[in-house]
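Lecture 7 notes: from sequence to structure.

We start with a single chain of 385 residues. Read the sequence below before looking at the structure.
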Amino acid sequence: MNRRAFLASSSLAALAAGSTLRASAAASAQTAAVIGHTGRGDYGHGLDGIFTGRAGIEVVAVADPDPVGRSRTAEKLMAPRQYADFREMLDKERPKLVSVAMRHADQHHAIASACLEAGAHVYVEKPFVRSAAEADALLALAEAKGLRIAVAHTMRMMPVVRQLRRVVADGLLGELRELRAYGKQDQRAGGEDMMVLGTHLFDLCRLFCGDPRSVSGEVRIEGRPVTVSDRRLVRDNVGWVAGDQVWARFEFPGGVQMTFASDGRLRETIGHWGIELLGSKGVARINCDISPGVFVRRSGAWSAEGRRDDWQPLDAALVQAPPEHNLGPVGDWLQAIQERREPECSGRNGAWAVEMAMGVYASSMEGRRLPFPLADRRHPLDRTA
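Now the structure, written as tokens:
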């Protein structure tokens, strides 16, 4: 064989080997799909792109009832197939991973149930579902099928929040005694604010304090307590909401107290939505956002002239333990699937955030403090008057 024939033969062999490797890689890749609903929650906060650039994952399809949004998203994700009906997509594609992307939580239970029944692990936009009962059903189904649910309460995975958690555990604030959480308190102030953004805050409070033991809540509209007749649906459908003012107090293990407020008249006073953590030796604040900020309060002594409080960004040098490897919420979910453990942003954590909101409504409408877990798992605004 001359040199030219040898090189040609080698090139053909290399091409064949490369083709075999690519086919093998494609065969071994985890198949993934994205479900959205353009115009009804769209694709959440970037949940259409959670699989982009991840080795070993192939996005095979997009489902969206809107043809324009569906085509645009499929092109963006280079998904080879697209469907108007998510059920048809699940039946034909049988993906192993699904992003349930739309913000409208009224769709989450039905779609996530179908995904789990089809054998897919699920990543869901927040809020998880509309009630404790819906959360119970999804968690039970995932448990029965050995599948993992993650909910996009992403702030608990942000590096600065993880740093704060570690320095609080190391005693930076002394003994943690109280948390004060404030909603965004914009035009959604009250029940809508609690369900859309307050669930983020409830999730973060559990990160620092564990599972709450009880709740006392008061939800009012135009100065009076809400009733079932005050319920309404909002543009980002998260289930029934009511009230223009919410006050709640949760008790956590060790006697730690947490309060939550959403009242539009406090918006200018409180400023940024978030949580203040008060300890026996110091105070910290999380200003919530897609990229949250964490600050520690440095206070002088009271005098006749008053007192100066200086909020300074958390100094990462205060973290004594070695830095954690942060995979992010999606990376942690994917690793949790491999390790057969619960992800950090687990369905259970998402369910607790919803149950805390339901507890506020239930306590207000029953006029008493209620223990967790709630005995009645239905949405309080779904019950008969």
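The first helix runs from residue 3 to 28. Keep this in mind for problem set 3.
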